């Protein structure tokens, strides 16, 4: 027992040991436990009390909020380096705890397009996935059911599907309607956004209550978070040990399997958890880091576990944000909703395409471009709460000031994909250590010319739409000023060739027969879609293979 009274000693040899309890790990654990297998989940962070979420929201909207107050990220435990061309602010958008980053995510869940799985074949760049959209299609449907997705089949560019969404889509917001009129005149189709949040009561959780603080916290529980799936895994018989960061995986003497996961507990002790199968679902950075920390030259893994190809840590990708903001001479009612309700994939599969519309349309481009999507933001402009709390006026004077500063802002955004490159990588920084003396992760990240051209194309289209809307464009997010969407992908990529990747199409490492990796780190390419639904679909696919093996 540790000081909080929880038993964190290892179980006797179990069927499966899962590292991480975000959406990937929680889904694998739930599936295996429901099938009657003995499962232990090791989670580095705590099990947060849901009753505290209203207080977390209150902290988040205070002007002094610095990003780390809500979920306790930062300090020696979460130290990192970033020595690439661009600083990568890793702690800005990750959570260590039961539920992982779904505790504070935006909640958008799109399927990748068919061409995203065959980027080398279609565009001659990157690599093809060792599986197709059709291979993942049934697991996408299962993932939408597992997360609880509100959506509509109104996207003419989306990949094919048969089954309806679990819940009806959210209605487009008021500002979405303004954008839709301008887009129609330019020949740009708009459509709803699939959201992993309840548009009606579902799965024991309420419909969205409209707090508008979806990121960093949903106080009502209407937005899906993986702690609910972790609960279901425990109810099915899994054992979840929180505050148990895994320090390394121990390979067998011949290096062909994993024998144990070594984890630490708050009392300063280390323990070994043995299992028949191991699943690492620790996120896009911590998964490759754990493999690198598990290097064992005596047992055939001198450069890190499962790293005979040299691809552990390499091929790191993220999505880039590009956007334009301004004002209209009328109320836009933005900041009333904390999530997206409309977007456009009109240029996703053909980013250089021209459009035709009543007002001339969008001109085409012959440049070599990658996929991107357009987003119509519902949270533009300053927060009225922050404006009020910072103001020196009170009463009617405060109201007059707020009306002048808030309510006419409007903005667009978009996500742009980047290709996997070996120089973009996650390595270990031996000059800095965490609270257990392990080298911290070093994220080396940069942009390539193709990504920057794609960003410029996406921004040009956004500015044209804003001007068609009649907005005064006051700010833009350009390639020079962009940042990541915090969708860490690619650093343990999936590839049919063991010499060119880390895991195969069933998410099992090429070199260790009982070690699987799930999460966005296995993506060979990233497309430009938010990755969580694909993470969940791959986790369910992996679980189906493990059930057969066990």
TrEMBL record:
Keywords: FAD, Flavoprotein, Oxidoreductase. PROSITE patterns: 4FE4S_FER_2 (PS51379), MIP (PS00221). It comes from Haloglomus irregulare. This is GMC family oxidoreductase. It comes from the Archaea. The keyword Magnesium does not apply. Pfam families: FAD_binding_3 (PF01494), GMC_oxred_C (PF05199), GMC_oxred_N (PF00732). Residues 198-228 form the 4Fe-4S ferredoxin-type domain. InterPro entries: 4Fe4S_Fe-S-bd, FAD-bd, FAD/NAD-bd_sf, GMC_OxRdtase_N, GMC_OxRtase_C, MIP_CS, P2Ox-like. GO terms for molecular function: FAD binding; oxidoreductase activity, acting on CH-OH group of donors. Belongs to the GMC oxidoreductase family. Its cofactor is FAD.
